């Protein structure tokens, strides 16, 4: 039986060519997809990721927010950055000469430690006592450093108040500025140049999140509250509390 050429079946030849072309196209697209995926993975691994921001622990936020009302120079990010530098938010932090979340020396705590949680005891290991005491002491230091050049307002005052918290106010007054103590200079630098910018971003993100949550909640239908049978309620009054340091 004579062999039949492909020309005898033109439809079969065309079909085979189309199949090969489709296979080549599919292989090309698959290869291209792999190349694109590899490029994206490499880019993801090589691009610097935004560092994770520090946050104020939920249990500490109410006391920090209340403490900064002690005086106007204080702010939530500043106090948070200082606590982070002092103890990393550890209530049991103990350096050997300073104790608690706000790292008070025994001498300074004896003078500035106050009962912030209302249990009748000023406890350096209790953050609800120590953080308000820290704020109160910082406000005092802001007043102390006003006599030092650059200590009246702004960043200069904050630098000097932080230095006084770490080294003691007498050291700052004697030096007429930040003392030439490596620990103190590193302490001030870490708070202002490293931690404070991060806590400012963190706090901004927190406030934006809270605003969205509040907006979403107010947009939802709510049931009218029934009148209180006991008359007009009154909320608890808010007060101010204390502050801290390492050297008297």
From TrEMBL:
InterPro entries: Lysozyme-like_dom_sf, Transglycosylase_SLT_dom_1. It comes from the Bacteria. Keywords: Membrane, Transmembrane, Transmembrane helix. SUPFAM superfamilies: Lysozyme-like (SSF53955). Residues 76-186 form the Transglycosylase SLT domain. Residues 201-248 are annotated as: Disordered. The chain crosses the membrane at residues 21-42. Residues 214-248 have a biased composition (Low complexity). Residues 204-213 have a biased composition (Basic and acidic residues). Pfam families: SLT. The keyword Transmembrane helix applies. This is Transglycosylase SLT domain-containing protein. It comes from Streptomyces rhizosphaericus.
């Amino acid at each position: 039986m004579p062999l039949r050429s492909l020309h005898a079946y033109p439809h079969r030849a065309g079909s085979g060519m189309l199949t090969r072309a489709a296979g080549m196209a599919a292989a090309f697209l698959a290869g291209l997809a792999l190349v694109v995926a590899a490029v994206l993975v490499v880019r993801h691994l090589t691009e610097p990721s935004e560092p994770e921001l520090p946050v104020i622990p939920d249990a500490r936020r109410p006391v920090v927010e209340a403490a900064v009302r002690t005086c106007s120079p204080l702010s939530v990010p500043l106090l948070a950055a200082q606590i982070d530098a002092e103890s990393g938010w550890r209530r049991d932090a103990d350096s050997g000469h300073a104790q608690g979340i706000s790292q008070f020396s025994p001498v300074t705590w004896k003078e500035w430690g106050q009962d912030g949680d209302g249990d009748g005891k000023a406890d350096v290991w209790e953050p609800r006592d120590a953080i308000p005491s820290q704020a109160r002491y910082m406000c005092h230091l802001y007043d102390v450093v006003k006599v030092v050049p650059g200590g009246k307002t702004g960043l200069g005052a904050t630098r000097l108040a932080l230095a006084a918290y770490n080294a003691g106010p007498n050291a700052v007054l004697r030096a007429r500025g930040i003392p030439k103590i490596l620990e103190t200079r590193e302490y001030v630098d870490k708070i202002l140049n490293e931690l404070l910018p991060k806590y400012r971003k963190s706090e901004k993100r927190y406030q934006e999140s809270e605003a969205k949550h509040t907006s979403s909640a107010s947009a939802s239908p709510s049931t009218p509250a029934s009148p209180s049978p006991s008359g007009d309620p009154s909320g608890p009054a808010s007060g101010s509390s204390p502050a801290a340091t390492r050297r008297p």
